[in-house]
TrEMBL record, chain A:
Protein name in UniProt: ABC transporter permease
One CC-aspect GO term: plasma membrane
Protein location: Cell membrane
Classification via PANTHER family: ABC TRANSPORTER, PERMEASE PROTEIN (PTHR47089), GUANOSINE ABC TRANSPORTER PERMEASE PROTEIN NUPP (PTHR47089:SF1)
GO MF term set: transmembrane transporter activity
Organism: Knoellia locipacati
Principal cellular location given in the protein's record: membrane
Keywords, in A-Z order: Cell membrane, Membrane, Transmembrane, Transmembrane helix
Residue spans crossing the bilayer: 30-55, 84-103, 132-156, 168-186, 295-320, 340-359
Membrane topology according to the record: Multi-pass membrane protein
InterPro entries according to UniProt: ABC_transp_permease (IPR001851)
Domain of life: Bacteria
TrEMBL record, chain C:
UniProt-annotated location(s): Cell membrane
Record GO cellular component, one term: plasma membrane
The UniProt record lists the keyword Protein transport: no
Residues spanning the membrane: none
Predominant location: membrane
Protein name stated in the entry: Heme ABC transporter ATP-binding protein
Region (Disordered): 265-287
Alphabetically ordered keywords of this record: ATP-binding, Cell membrane, Membrane, Nucleotide-binding, Repeat, Translocase, Transport
Topology of the protein relative to the lipid bilayer: Peripheral membrane protein
SUPFAM superfamilies: P-loop containing nucleoside triphosphate hydrolases (SSF52540)
UniProt entry tagged with the keyword Translocase: yes
Domain ABC transporter: start-end pairs: 2-239, 294-535
UniProtKB/TrEMBL annotation, chain D:
InterPro entries given in the database record: ABC_transp_permease (IPR001851)
Primary localisation category: membrane
UniProt keyword annotations, A-Z: Cell membrane, Membrane, Transmembrane, Transmembrane helix
Subcellular location(s) per record: Cell membrane
Membrane topology note: Multi-pass membrane protein
Entry's transmembrane regions: 45-74, 86-108, 128-145, 175-193, 257-276
Cellular-component GO terms for this entry: plasma membrane
GO molecular function, one term: transmembrane transporter activity
Protein name: ABC transporter permease
Length: 383, 321, 536, 292
């Protein structure tokens, strides 16, 4: 799963492995690499356009909404970044344990616990000044997420209970926890849903710009840079990958594999918890039923599209955030039924993956042709 | 930050249009508008507004975390009135309203919110009023003296509904017992079916549903029972076709008039207010044909008493269960 | 009867086979020889339909066959025993054997096929391959699993049986059994292709041999027309033309040839870089004995049934000393190796330069200079999906890090050096280690081991599956490390190897170390008796 | 039959279909994660076809076919193209779920949905699908452990390379196991409107697809334990509901946690059966030396 390893430059001569290709060449190859993805998105749009037309709506308006919504003004951008933040954290929460070969499907429950922890502090200590309250809210949310994933990690290490099983079940438990907190403990009587009371003023993440973007976005940016650097360069990142690649060999070479796996799960829970805390402190100022949205699934998808590379996660997350924000407005703008969005997203995903395969096949075919030509040439020379 | 170049381009594009004060309404629905339930009722009202000359657009199946984005986009696209259908959207609506003082907002709220912005109308659904009538209805229908109440989430409004039913029973001097349960999901029909079956098994013979599309499960629980052996009621819309022979009626909500009224007030410059939903403004208990006449009479009387003020229904959100 | 011609196969930039021709006659045992990464496995995988060749044809009995998949190969009468067993661990022997054949006649009684069981028993008797059909293969020792693999092929009525380095996993007795089975198979009208690095084995059992090098066919010879030495030099190639290299390779060639008098040979012809040069000098130099660098006291690994897997092992090892531990596989060598390197919980004591290590985490052992080259390299030695660079860093990743960060640029540069120094055949340092041929994987592991500057180096079957040149290379490296004061323990089932390397030889038997012979006093006969539990 | 038993059995049936479908695909190495979407699609197709064609049997068959199409796409994309099983599964979850809603919208429109006839009772007050589900579990057990084809399928999930080397067509085995497995999942979805609600609604599945994945793990990917596990889980669910109906004095949110926590608790004491196919979710590439 480790891209850092498998995507290294294609060198045929051992000696030039250490040298990186020049920047211009890299930029160009990056641009070329983007073409298949663009084609994939386009293909998905074409299929969906047919569908929209058949249903009697205007596909052009629909797609204009999808693609431009994030960029046409600051509001779109802020909305996109507000989506990007939890998506990135949830994707990391999936990708980090994945590095160690563990599937954390519990990002949703961990995030919910994060919102509950954050809201609990934000509501009960609402009078504290911001310098104390805000950090406290974020820390408690993070810890709550970590504790939730620690349960799965503990079951996994001590009882060999598959983490997919335990995280899925704990997600369902977390819904009940949230329901209890939002409709019993700190319920907002006026809200027609399970919604808690608002958190104190001092617990709110300050915004910047107009419309305000909450500073949680910057926090997530920082977290993703740290995560990427740690994954690429740190001992911890290496051990994580090693455990995922071969647990036995890692153990024989001095890595405490159990500890690495458990840590990866707990870090994941902490990140998901932080996502919850940021949603509370930055967006909703409370926790509420449904606050987890579909961040878990999108996070998994992002983590997998990034092939576990933590460096790629924030970029992929941005792409998905643009799509999500844009797709959401499609119906209002074009009148096309809202289900089209799901179909579009599903197709884009499928085609993106397929474009990878197509590129790879094309590249291999070209390589094979080239190497055959070369061998013909050398044979000719000998003859 | 995200680039400092632009001033907000979209905001004033709508207001500069033709001189006529044609309203451009954008609505936000929480579920699918073809649910034959709460969202369908909303769409109907919106369509009515369209017939009355407004320009409309809407988003459905909007999750709470996404509503702010949908609202801002609607404003950006030139909506002059934005309506969020469902009180879970109030907070986001108020927030966006504060940022967009030139646009009018209609939100729903159970009660009167604190710090209601100057450009926000709220519609108070007062579910407890309707359920007072349902209390009379169910109590009269029950032969066993046990009525099951099947809710989704145990929200304050749901508590108020149960308390209002209890008040109705006390007021009518009956000794009917209410067994309230919450399935955890307004739309999970399977859970509703299971709970209803258990309630029926435990001696209840009337099921009062306070669900959305999950209500179909309460109907299904009567499958295999003889006609007349128990009754089931619903909320929001007439569900006679789906419910079958045990259907006693429904507490129906119609938003056509409330929406038209509020739009009218906004049109006449009244930008903030609280619109109360009650038996005089679109709420009604529609009793099915097979229901005994005395029951129907009692329900009608209860509705009239509430409407006239002869009966004061207490709003009690105290926790149960 | 079988003819492959012009076979070409590339993996990305790697040309694994370059126009190879290969023929097998009726009723012959055909040896396929060549260095690591020569393409032997690849050629046979092409034959078996596992790899689609870029070019080339296969014909059987004169008519061309189109082999797209193992199914076609099986239908064409080709059977193959793979270098790494391809078995379903949770299945029984019988299930593994009949899997995929038509109508296995499963019964409800014990979930194992009745008629099939009969046939398996019959086959195993006929060819001397005894197995228990109802045993779960995961629970079986390698020797038996090997037999299961052969039975799988025979059960399908193979006419040509390919054995890819079958002897690497076997004890000498088992090798003899295997060879007689092979004879029986040939007598039954089949042909066998035997891939091996052991020239002795080919000379013993093969009728003809083909030598490959660098993905090309080099020569095919009759046994009658060649000698072991000729074969060795053909395998090694042009380089052997120079005298210096030839001399350097002689010893490994001897091990490969498996000359019986090797014990003496090593006494009478001291080899370059051998004992005298070393500070410890082992038994050969009794005068100036420095104090022990590694002491082991009562090292014991508890076993599941009360009987310890490793039983009260006590050793004193001087700097520069090479201890050889011979033994038949399954006498607790694996557990002993792991206990001696801190990768398995054990009781007792082990000190390196006075530091007690038992009970400390593996990382501490590594930091104290204890380095382990495990036997099962695929499973225990590498991160198959990671590049060579990362594999070389494994184990030293903590010590080389500054502030918790690894300098990958430096690591890459080192890797490029190591690849050159250890002649690892790879397209790049970023190539996934799992893609390398068996022998090249071992080179990577050794490169990593020596880079640790070990104080105690434990090698378990270090040259299994290595070609002559690599074997010699390993020996030189081991002696070099010893010359610098490293204590070396070589655990090997290859008696020749133990005798060639060790200053002192002992035998693992049933979890204990029995007997002890200084260099030169050990002879294969005595050792053999200890190994089988007869002597001492 | 006692009400408790009847409720448990009916609650178990959809889980059983979906978890056994998950198991069947999984034993061949295909880890389907589109259950939630497949159940929705099954429910929508089952409902619509039952309504329009006037019979539950046709509805169930149509649902199975719709599921099979999705399963075929999953299997093809992961065996022929070797796309990541998880991502494709999630993409198909979106696609299937979206298609379900869209179909319903297009066919039924905005009207109040008519109810379809419930599944008729067969014997013991249980409908035919109960017996189909039980028979299916028994059949799968027999087929997996007592037939050659079953053995081949298991080998593909445990060690596809070994299977391949014995001439077993790994891709084909995975193709049909993935297809049939998905069809079963859709049937599990179709059961919902036929028994619990009479109509289709977007909220009808409510996470049961994800729970079915957990149940496949809970049952150690073996049909007999999946049957036991689904029954246990359903019983816990009904028990929790019973507790709420009778009123136990603890907030119902905590009572509702019972099935999930009980399942985890059982796992703590049942390490032994917690097996997972070795190649679950891993694509097989014949020419790659790297396993997985
Ligand atoms: N599946 C594969 N993917 C990539 N490269 C491969 C693959 N199989 C073989 N190779 C490469 O082809 C070359 C020949 O490998 P092969 O395994 O045939 O060698 P061999 O002669 O069997 O060596 P050994 O004696 O070490 O087993 C090597 O360079 C190897 O890295
Ligand atoms: N002697 C027997 N008689 C009847 N049935 C048996 C017998 N042995 C095993 N079985 C059945 O065969 C199946 C496999 O049994 P077992 O408990 O060994 O599963 P397993 O090997 O752990 O599973 P898997 O092979 O899937 O990993 C089970 O359904 C078991 O009940
Ligand atoms: Mg080989
Ligand atoms: Mg078994």
């Amino acid at each position: 799963m480790s891209t850092d390893v498998t995507q290294a430059p294609e060198a045929t001569d051992v000696t030039d492995v250490a040298a990186a290709p020049p920047l211009a060449q890299r930029a160009r190859s990056l641009a070329f690499a983007a073409i298949p993805y663009a084609v994939a998105v386009l293909a998905a749009f074409v299929v969906v356009a047919v569908l929209i037309t058949v249903l009697g709506h205007d596909p052009v308006a629909a797609f204009r909404a999808v693609l431009t919504n994030s960029f046409r003004n600051q509001t779109g951008m802020v909305q996109t970044l507000h989506k990007w933040a939890p998506l990135t954290l949830l994707a990391l929460a999936f990708a980090i344990p994945l590095g160690a070969g563990r599937f954390n499907i519990g990002g949703e429950g961990q995030m919910i616990l994060g919102t509950v922890g954050a809201a609990a502090v934000g509501i009960t200590m609402s009078d504290l000044p911001m310098v104390i309250l805000l950090p406290l809210v974020l820390v408690v949310g993070t810890l709550a997420g970590a504790v939730w994933s620690a349960i799965s990690a503990w079951l996994m290490e001590s009882f060999k209970i598959n983490e997919i099983l335990s995280t899925v079940l704990l997600n369902f438990v977390s819904f009940e926890v949230l329901d209890y907190v939002a409709s019993v403990v700190w319920s907002d009587p006026g809200a027609g849903g399970a919604v808690t009371l608002p958190i104190g003023e001092g617990a709110v993440l300050p915004g910047i710009g107009r419309p305000p973007m909450h500073t949680g976005v910057l926090l997530v940016l920082l977290v993703s840079v740290v995560a990427a650097v740690m994954a690429k360069r740190s001992v911890a990142g290496f051990e994580l990958r090693a455990v995922g690649l071969n647990e036995r060999a890692s153990k024989l070479h001095g890595i405490r594999t159990g500890r690495v796996a458990v840590t990866s799960m707990i870090v994941a829970g902490a990140l998901a918890g932080l996502a919850g805390a940021i949603e509370v402190a930055g967006v909703h100022q409370r926790t509420l039923e449904g606050i987890q949205s579909n961040f878990l699934l999108l996070g998994i998808i992002i983590g997998l599209i990034a092939r576990g590379s933590l460096t790629a996660v924030p970029f992929v997350a941005f792409g998905i955030a643009v799509l999500e924000v844009g797709a959401g407005s499609m119906q209002r703008v074009s009148g096309a039924p809202v289900e089209i969005v799901l179909i579009l997203e599903g197709l884009i995903l499928l085609f993106l993956l397929m474009s990878d395969v197509a590129t790879e096949r094309w590249r291999r075919a070209r390589q094979a042709r080239a190497s055959r030509a070369k061998s013909q040439l050398t044979k000719g020379a000998v003859a | 930050g995200c680039g400092g170049s632009g001033d907000d381009a979209g905001t004033d594009s709508g207001s500069g249009g033709d001189g006529a004060k044609k309203q451009v309404i954008a609505a936000i629905f929480s579920g699918p508008t073809n649910d034959a339930d709460y969202n369908a009722v909303g769409l109907k009202a919106l369509k009515a507004a369209e017939s009355a000359g407004a320009k409309i657009s809407f988003s459905e199946k909007v999750a709470v975390p996404d509503v702010e984005a949908r609202l801002t986009e609607a404003v950006g696209d030139g909506a002059t009135v934005v309506w969020t259908h469902g009180s879970q959207f109030y907070d986001a609506t108020a927030k966006v309203a504060k940022n967009n003082p030139d646009v009018n907002f209609i939100a729903e709220y159970d009660g009167v919110p604190k710090d209601q912005p100057a450009n926000v109308w709220t519609i108070d659904r007062q579910f407890h009023l309707g359920f007072y009538g349902m209390g009379v209805f169910a109590s009269k229908l029950s032969k066993t003296g046990t009525v099951g109440y099947v809710g989704g989430l145990s929200l304050p409004f749901s508590m108020a509904e149960v308390h209002a039913m209890e008040q109705a029973i006390t007021d009518t001097g009956a000794s009917t017992k209410i067994k309230p349960v919450w399935t955890g999901d307004f739309n999970d029909a399977a859970k509703a079916q299971q709970f209803s079956t258990q309630l029926l098994g435990q001696g209840a013979d009337v099921i009062v549903g306070s669900l959305n599309v999950g209500s179909t499960g309460t109907f299904q629980a009567f499958e295999g029972r003889a006609e007349g052996d128990g009754w089931v009621t619903a909320k929001y819309t007439d569900k006679a076709a789906a419910a079958g022979k045990h259907y006693a009626g429904s507490l129906e909500y119609d938003f056509d008039k409330p929406l038209a009224d509020v739009l009218g007030k906004i049109g006449s410059g009244e930008e903030k207010g609280n619109y109360l939903l009650g038996f005089d403004t679109g709420v009604t208990i529609k009793v099915a044909d097979g229901v005994p006449a005395d029951v129907k009479a009692a329900v009608d009387k209860a509705m009239n008493d509430v409407k006239s003020g002869a009966v004061k229904v207490k709003l009690d959100t105290a926790k149960i269960g | 009867m079988l003819q492959m011609s012009g076979i070409r196969k590339t993996f990305g930039p790697v040309v694994a086979l370059d126009g190879v021709d290969f023929t097998v006659a009726d009723r012959e045992i055909h040896g396929l020889l060549g260095g690591n990464g020569a393409g032997k496995t690849t050629l046979m995988n092409v034959l078996y339909g596992l790899y689609a060749p870029d070019a080339g044809t296969v014909s059987i009995d004169g008519s061309a066959v189109d082999i797209q998949s193992p199914k076609d190969a099986i239908a064409a009468g080709i059977g193959m025993v793979h270098q790494n067993f391809l078995q379903v661990d949770v299945f029984t022997v019988a299930e593994n054997i009949v899997l995929g054949t038509d109508s296995t006649g499963l019964t409800a009684a014990d979930g194992s096929p009745q008629t099939a069981t009969q046939r398996i028993t019959e086959l195993s008797e006929r060819f001397g391959l005894s197995v228990d059909p109802s045993a779960r293969v995961a629970d079986l020792p390698v020797g038996v699993r090997q037999r299961v693999e052969i039975l799988k092929a025979l059960y399908r009525g193979a006419k040509v049986l390919v054995l890819d380095e079958p002897t690497t996993n076997l004890t000498p007795q088992e090798v003899d059994d295997l060879f007689s089975s092979m004879r029986a198979i040939v007598d039954d009208g089949m042909s066998v292709v035997l891939i091996t690095h052991k020239i002795r084995e080919t000379m013993e059992v093969c009728d003809r041999m083909t030598v490959m090098r660098d993905g090309r066919w080099i020569a095919t010879v009759d046994k009658a027309d060649t000698t072991a030495d000729d074969l060795a030099s053909t395998m090694i190639g042009e380089v052997a033309g120079s005298d210096a290299d030839a001399a350097a390779l002689a010893e490994a060639a001897q091990v490969a040839l498996g000359e019986e008098d090797l014990g003496e040979a090593s006494l009478t012809h001291p080899l370059p870089g051998a004992s005298e040069a070393r500070p410890g000098g082992g038994a050969a130099d009794p005068v100036a004995q420095p104090p022990a660098r590694v002491t082991v006291r009562g090292l014991t690994v508890a076993g599941p049934g009360g009987k310890p897997l490793v039983d009260d092992v006590t050793l004193d090892l001087r700097p520069g000393e090479i201890l050889g531990i011979a033994g038949v596989a399954g006498n607790g060598q694996g557990e002993l190796a792991e206990a001696l390197t801190g990768t398995r919980t054990a009781s007792g004591s082990l000190t390196v330069d006075g530091d007690e290590l038992v009970g400390r985490p593996t990382a501490t052992w590594l930091r104290s200079g204890v380095v382990y080259v495990p036997e099962d390299r695929q499973r225990d030695g590498i991160l198959p999906g990671a590049g060579i660079t990362e594999n070389l860093v494994l184990g030293s990743h903590r010590t080389r890090a500054k502030a918790g960060m690894i300098n990958w640029r430096a690591a890459r540069a080192e890797a490029v050096e190591a690849i050159k120094e250890f002649s690892v055949k790879t397209p790049s340092a970023a190539t996934a280690c799992g893609q390398l041929s068996g022998g090249n994987i071992q080179r990577v592991i050794l490169a990593r081991a020596f880079a640790h500057n070990p104080k105690l180096l434990l090698l378990h079957n270090p040259t299994r599956g290595l070609d002559i040149r690599s074997t010699q290379f390993v020996y030189d490296r081991v002696r070099n490390a010893a010359a610098q004061g490293c204590v070396v323990i070589v655990i090997s089932e290859d008696l020749d190897e133990v005798l060639a390397l060790a200053d002192r030889v002992t035998v693992a038997y049933s979890g204990r170390l029995v007997g002890e012979f200084p260099r030169g006093e050990a002879n294969p006969y005595d050792l053999g008796r200890l190994m089988t539990g007869v002597g001492a | 039959m006692s009400e408790f038993l009847t409720l448990t059995i009916t609650a178990m049936v959809p889980f059983l279909f979906v978890a056994q479908g998950t198991m069947l695909s999984g034993r061949a190495g295909i880890f389907n994660v589109a259950q939630e979407g497949l159940m929705l699609l099954g429910a929508a197709v089952g409902y619509i076809i039952s309504l329009k064609a006037g019979g539950n049997v046709v509805g169930i068959i149509a649902a199975a076919l719709a599921g099979a199409v999705v399963g075929f796409i999953l299997s093809w994309a992961t065996t022929s193209l070797r796309l990541d099983q998880f991502v494709v599964g999630l993409a198909l979850f979106f696609l299937a779920g979206g298609t379900a809603s869209l179909l319903y919208r297009v066919v039924i429109g905005n009207d109040e949905p008519p109810r379809i006839a419930p599944l008729p009772e067969l014997i013991l007050g249980q409908d035919a699908m109960v017996f189909v589900a039980l028979a299916l579990s028994g059949f799968l057990w027999w087929w997996l452990y007592r037939t050659d084809a079953g053995m081949r399928l298991r080998s593909v999930g445990e060690n596809p390379k070994a299977a391949d080397s014995l001439g077993i067509n790994v891709a084909r085995t995975r193709m049909w196991a993935g297809t049939v497995g998905a069809a079963l999942m859709a049937v599990g979805g179709a059961y919902l409107p036929m028994v619990f609600s009479g109509v289709y609604a977007d909220g009808i599945v409510a996470g049961r697809g994800w729970l079915a994945i957990a149940l496949a793990f809970f049952g150690g990917w073996r049909p007999q334990y999946i049957l036991a596990g689904s029954a246990f889980f359903a019983a816990m669910e009904v028990l929790a509901q019973r507790a709420q109906v009778s009123g136990v004095g603890i907030p119902h949110q905590f009572v509702s946690m019972l099935p999930y926590i009980a399942t985890l608790a059982v796992m703590v004491f049942a390490l032994r059966w917690a097996l997972v196919p070795q190649f679950l979710g891993k694509n097989y590439d014949r020419e790659s030396r790297i396993v997985g």
